[in-house]
Design a protein that fits this description.
Chain lengths: 590, 458
């Protein structure tokens, strides 16, 4: 069944003679067989969004439907790969067409030639339902790929084999209750716009450890949660996203470069194989899937890229893994949506974005969560979604930021004035928030002691107080403040400079474990308490208090290597006590 | 056999509608022949059945609906490229403007290019010494980077760009195969002439390709001009293995031409009337900078744009900043103070600096001193603000030192004049001398061993 093109306007093509095609089917357009997707249907004519450049296409060109919606291939071979927005492997495309991406290239997402060693974990005769783990493949040194029965398949396992197989080889046969024998391969296909099924969802209760102090301690994210990182350009959004992709204690990371810079993806491609995951000791690339639809690549495929990414993430979640999806940037995705909507001549909503922008964003973030997977063994997986937002001019009153903020539970607001002062990560502690604090509290209390949470709250209070005091200082100067207020300012400055600031490009500082963060925070607050006590006893030479030797050592404390920090911090604590006592004695003598 | 159509049904400059066409494809180039034999160019924006909507690149004046002929050429807008382009001047549409002969094409390239495969990019990490402290020391440029200059009307962005073009070199690779591709987009004759004279003066003209669309040339032609320049640059960089510096000035004029066409097409406008696809459109130009794995050449891009009302949140600088790898921002305040180049250090940024500096590239202490200078200058400026409100007496002794640092920093580090070419060592030395103004205990961002090694002693 094939139709004919009647109209071409950029990535939008209208074709007639497609009465047999279904809504959302993937079609091949023209001689070059460009990939497209049906967006609307009227009678036998269809509006098609084409995922590749349509230059050279005209009326009369043939359109063929593939009879299936836009789908991804799921199976061994996903990890360590880099795909474009519609899951075409970019490394293989490079081998075919050189440095640029030619049009109409067709390469299967999963390598059809490569063989994997499949080890069954169930035996023939077992009763199978969708999601049951049939066997395992050691996909990379870091990740064991669990081969599951595709959702919806029920029956008796008639046969299962072990050995080296290609992804399309039959590894098992299942007889359905209807008496039909279904062959099972390691590869499944799944439509990207449909979320993969699970048994049930839970409220997230375990923190995601990212090694970033301002995130983990101040505004923690839960595994299975959602977060947004909005910020103007130059405020370090991408560095924050890269840090999360590098150091998060999840099993799998799917990184979606959606309409962003090509060099950023190259950076990830070059750096991740060299970096070692502190949690497993394996190179980070072994647990990473990259989706790159950079800003110069076709805009329609950009729209598809975040669905491609999250579907791959859901597949790994279904194996019982903790997965993080990091999308940079959802604003570019929204712009792609706007461009297609404009070409379809839909009635625009706010700022030209389509009226369904908010519901589409909500659908995307709602695919995150903590779930009990299908398969009846009670295994749990989680999918954490983190999206960057690039508001025009840094003004978050625009539709994409506003729609995102209504959905996500964690908001890390980046601030350009902090970035100018080279305070990185430039997450503004005054307007950021995490709604997971209460849910995570039992976990924190149990793991790091009750002090941790109390210290966090005290630190936040000090920072708040600082903001108020700064207003006064601006009017009357620092000299007119009382000694306790001067101490508050000093302690808040220490929190900012010695705790919140973290240099992503210095090896010793890039990652900080929860234990180290907790201890560093307690050292700073202990200093505050000791000074506060001294001032309470009438000692008011704050300048001397602020220039004791231990104070400067706290300033360099975050650079202490992970294996030495405990001893080093204890030493600072002891010195601090001695030095402040000495000062007070000297004071009494006068 | 190319068909000629005399079926133009409508002209609303710069758009034209032609009825009864056959076999026309999207983005195809067409020629329009006027009754007097004059030929103009246009490209297909939309084909709907037998109707084609085309966009004129030149003026619509003088076109007669019934007597003008349209020929569709079957290919998109192309540029004839060859190494002979070096030293020549072209119009914004790529035809010679200097009275010289047509270029004998070694290849004809589609000016839209193809998206570069992210897996085939080579990460830019070779330090380019521009001889300008604020760039080398604080916002380091590397080969293959796209680093725009955000300027305002009346600021010396042209001098800065010319100084970079003149002084830029890669350390230890002085004999490099270097070329400049310059695109004047809607700027005045005088401004374009400044660059031509500057290239003449330094002898760089023989290694330069100029594309000039001046202020009185048709505005819609400006949409093609930067793409012509980039196509020439891609040819020189990736077919001829040269290191190409592309200067595009002024992107604001380009975006305005784009807005003009979008308004004529009656598209739903985005912010300030610019089309919603401005980001994507700019990205398809900027992203053509870079390096490719296995190719020795590179394209480094310096787009210049004047921010309307010096407003960084205006859509043009805003969207540019989201695509490029940093930005150099010029400040009117500094310029008034006589600081030249008036680079506003704090909001300026080079995203690729961390890959281009450090041991083996510049010097081991570069990153630490850079961070220290930034934060010290930021604190110094805050102290100065406080001083203007409350007077000097309200500052602590340390804050006074920071305020003094900020003044000296602007005077000695930022200001250097258009002729001074500082080596990276000189830049780093000035940085250390300035840091000496501050107490050592405040130099928290520098590793102790570097302080011991580099901080000048009395």
């Amino acid at each position: 069944m094939s139709g004919k093109v009647v109209k071409v306007s950029g990535p939008l093509v209208v074709a007639t003679g497609l009465a047999d095609a279904d809504m959302s089917d993937v079609v091949r357009v023209g001689e070059q067989k460009l990939i497209g997707e049906i967006l609307t249907m009227t009678g036998d004519s269809a509006s098609i969004q084409v995922y590749e450049e349509t230059s050279g296409l005209g009326p009369g060109a043939v359109v063929e439907t593939t009879g299936a919606p836009l789908s991804v291939e799921l199976g061994p071979g996903l990890l360590e790969n880099i795909y474009d927005g519609i899951q075409r492997p970019l490394t293989e495309i490079r081998a075919l067409t050189g440095h640029t991406i030619a049009r109409g290239v067709s390469v299967p997402a999963l390598n059809r030639e490569r063989e994997w060693y499949f080890t069954p974990v169930v035996e023939a005769g077992a009763e199978i339902t969708g999601g049951v783990i049939l066997g395992e493949v050691q996909e990379t040194t870091a990740i064991l790929h669990r081969i599951m029965a595709p959702p919806g398949l029920t029956g008796t396992l008639k046969e299962i084999r072990s050995g080296l197989f290609k992804v399309t080889d039959v590894i098992a046969r299942v007889e359905t209750p209807a008496g039909e024998t279904v062959p099972v391969t390691m590869m499944q296909k799944w439509p990207v716009r449909v979320s993969r099924p699970y048994r049930r969802k839970f409220t997230p209760s375990v923190p995601l450890c990212s090694g970033q102090r301002v995130i983990d301690t101040m505004f923690p994210l839960a595994k299975g949660g959602t977060a947004a990182v909005p910020g103007p350009f130059g405020s370090g959004k991408t560095v924050v996203q890269h840090q999360l992709a590098k150091w998060s204690d999840v099993d799998i990371v799917v990184y979606i470069g959606c309409g962003e810079r090509g060099n950023e993806m190259t950076d990830v491609l070059m750096e991740f194989p060299e970096l070692i995951d502190p949690h497993t000791g394996e190179p980070l690339m072994k647990r990473t899937v990259l989706i790159a639809n950079t800003s110069d690549m076709p805009v329609a495929a950009r729209e598809a890229s975040i669905y491609t990414g999250i579907t791959i993430a859901e597949y790994f979640r279904d194996m019982g893994y903790d997965v993080a999806v990091i999308a940079d940037s959802t604003s570019r995705w929204a712009e792609a949506l706007r461009e297609m909507s404009g070409r379809l001549e839909e009635m625009p909503g706010e700022e030209g974005y389509p009226a369904y922008l908010a519901s589409r964003l909500a659908q995307f973030y709602e695919r995150a969560g903590c779930v009990e997977c299908l398969g009846g063994d009670g295994r749990r997986g989680s999918l954490t979604a983190i999206g960057a937002v690039s508001p025009p001019g840094g003004d978050t009153s625009e539709p994409v930021s506003q729609a995102t903020m209504r959905i996500v539970k964690v908001f890390w607001g980046l601030d350009s004035s902090l970035a100018y002062a080279r305070h990185f990560p430039a997450i503004n502690w005054l307007n950021s928030y995490s709604l997971y604090l209460d849910g995570l509290r039992p976990h924190f209390d149990q793991t790091y002691g009750r002090d941790f949470f109390a210290n966090r709250d005290r630190a936040m209070a000090l920072l708040q107080e600082e903001a108020e005091l700064q207003e006064i200082v601006k009017l009357v100067g620092q000299d007119s403040l009382s000694a306790p207020d001067r101490l508050t300012l000093e302690a808040a400055k220490m929190l900012r400079e010695d705790f919140l600031q973290q240099n992503a490009f210095v090896e010793l500082d890039a990652y900080s474990s929860y234990e180290k963060q907790a201890k560093l925070l307690s050292v700073i607050l202990r200093y505050y308490d000791l000074c506060s006590a001294a001032i309470g006893k009438g000692y008011d030479d704050t300048l001397s208090l602020f220039s004791i030797g231990a104070r400067e050592r706290i300033g360099r404390a975050k650079m202490v290597p992970p294996e030495e920090y405990e001893a080093a911090y204890d030493l600072i604590l002891r010195e601090m006590e001695l030095q402040i006592n000495d000062l007070m004695k000297g004071g009494e003598e006068l | 056999m190319i068909k000629e159509y005399r079926t133009i049904s409508e002209i609303v400059s710069p758009l034209m509608m032609i009825k009864g066409v056959e076999g026309v494809t999207y983005d195809e180039l067409a020629e329009l022949e006027l009754p007097n034999g004059e030929v103009r160019h246009c490209k297909v924006l939309e084909v709907d059945g037998d109707t084609a909507v085309v966009q004129l690149f030149e003026n619509a004046a003088g076109i007669n609906l019934s007597r003008s002929k349209v020929r569709f050429l079957g290919h998109p807008l192309e540029l004839a490229v060859s190494a002979d382009m070096l030293g020549r001047v072209f119009t914004g549409m790529g035809t010679p403007r200097d009275g010289g002969p047509e270029i004998l094409a070694e290849a004809r390239m589609d000016i839209n290019g193809l998206p570069m495969n992210p897996a085939a990019r080579d990460y830019p990490n070779e330090f380019i010494q521009t001889g300008i402290s604020t760039i080398d020391g604080l916002n380091t440029l590397v080969r293959g980077q796209k680093l725009p200059i955000f300027s305002g009307s009346g600021l010396p962005h042209a001098q800065l760009a010319a100084q970079i073009a003149r002084q830029a070199k890669v350390l230890g690779d002085e004999a490099a195969n270097f070329a400049v591709v310059f695109a004047a987009i809607g700027i005045t004759f005088e401004e374009a002439e400044f660059f031509v004279q500057e290239f003449n003066r330094t002898g760089a003209i023989d290694r330069t390709v100029l594309f000039t669309n001046l202020a009185d040339d048709p505005a819609v032609e400006r949409i093609a001009t930067p793409r012509m320049a980039l196509t020439a640059a891609e040819y020189l960089a990736f077919e001829r293995d040269m290191h190409v510096l592309v200067i595009l000035t002024d992107i604001t004029n380009y975006a305005e031409a784009l807005r003009e066409v979008s308004a004529a097409k009656k598209e739903v406008p985005g912010r300030r009337g610019y089309p919603g696809y401005l980001y994507t459109d700019l990205a398809t130009m900027y992203e053509r900078a870079g390096r490719r794995i296995g190719k020795p050449g590179s394209i480094t891009m310096i787009p210049i744009l004047t921010m309307p009302e010096d407003d960084k949140t205006h859509p043009i600088p805003d969207l540019t900043g989201y695509i490029t790898e940093g930005q150099i921002i010029l400040s009117r305040d500094l310029y008034r103070k006589g600081v030249n180049p008036p680079v506003d250090v704090l909001p300026s940024l080079s995203r690729l600096k961390d890959k281009g500096i450090g041991k083996g590239k510049t010097r081991e202490d570069h990153a630490d001193t850079m961070n220290q200078l930034f934060s010290a200058y930021s604190r110094g400026k805050e102290a100065k603000e406080l001083m203007t409100i409350l007077g000097e007496s309200a500052l602590t002794p340390t804050d006074l030192q920071f305020a003094r640092f900020a003044d000296e920093f602007e005077k000695r580090y930022v200001s250097q004049g258009p002729e001074e070419n500082r080596s990276i060592e000189e830049t780093l030395t000035i940085g250390w001398e300035l840091l000496k103004i501050l107490p050592t205990s405040e130099l928290k961002r520098i590793r102790t061993e570097y302080i011991e090694k580099y901080l000048p002693r009395d």
